[in-house]
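It would be a great kindness if you could assist me with a short task in structural biology. I am sending you one protein, given as its amino acid sequence and as whole-number tokens for its backbone shapes. I would ask you to consider whether the tokens describe a fold that such a sequence might reasonably adopt. The full record is reproduced below for your convenience.
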Amino acid sequence: MVAAAMTVERRSAGPVTEDEAGTRLDRWLAAKLAGLSRARIAALIKDGKATGADGAAVDATNYRVQEGERFTLTVPPAESAVPQPEDIPLTIVFEDRDVIVVDKPAGLVVHPAAGNHAGTLVNALLRHCGDSLSGIGGVRRPGIVHRLDKDTSGLMVVAKNDAAHQALVAGFATRAIKRTYQALVWGVPEPEAGRIEGAIGRSARDRKKMAVVARGGRAAATNYRVLETFGADAKGRGVVALVECTLESGRTHQIRVHMSHLGHPVVGDPSYGKPPAAAMKALPLAVRQAVTNLSRQFLHAAALEFVHPRTGKARRFVSRLPLELGAIVSIYRTHIRKDAP
């Protein structure tokens, strides 16, 4: 276990010499700051901990330094290398000696990572399951075989032993595990059922975001169908649609990226879901306020199906929309319902 440091350290370097100009920022800092590996420096840069002389963050590791520039790297206190058990409430849908199915709330990070070293689902699982999770799937992600974004709620299955972990990982790899999500999106997709296929990788415009890319991404496919439409704009088109999505792959932000690429971003999504101005104007005041006050993206893992690794029997679990999302749908149904064709 790594002992925790007590203070934040700020280390400065520069100015960049003429010979050094054009060097990658992470490589340049690694040469200037002793005691920090390039991997550690790269992680800190991506986390916005590197700033220029003007105080602005430079969060691209491949930024090419320019002659005369100076940089400061903020190094936070060291964290424990091993996640610690924490008393965090869990909504347990099912549990036996092999697996545990939880209904994750929005706002809960799945496993420790940069910026979220504690208060995660893993910390809660370690408290609930004790030593049985130790080492399964790696120290930082014990038992975890798939993830949900921090602000996506819904069902997750976690392995409690190595045999279950291997079986579930294989199930995801062969698409034998089925995940079904519900999302509220802007506009109504056409056709109302279809398949979105597009490789997902880092956005060239914003490295913190993902995007459908022509080269360098990972293959991804999402199937969707419209469940219900609400409202009508000036041209009689639906304002929003409740859609069901099933995944053929599990890429970072996949549904959010694919629906946005289709032209129908998820309502409430801070990264990919800017609401169309015309659609917002078409909403009655009560609905507009509800959407504006939504503290998360409207995306919920509503159903999970898998073959139990020990019994071989198919199991299916369902989760209803949480209160915050269910209330939005209720308001739409009350104020601007339009039956889906």
Remarks:
- Residues 323-335 form the longest helix (13 residues).
- Residues 1-5 have pLDDT under 50 and may be disordered.
- The helical segments are 25-32, 38-46, 121-129, 162-173, 254-261, 277-281, 285-292, 323-335.
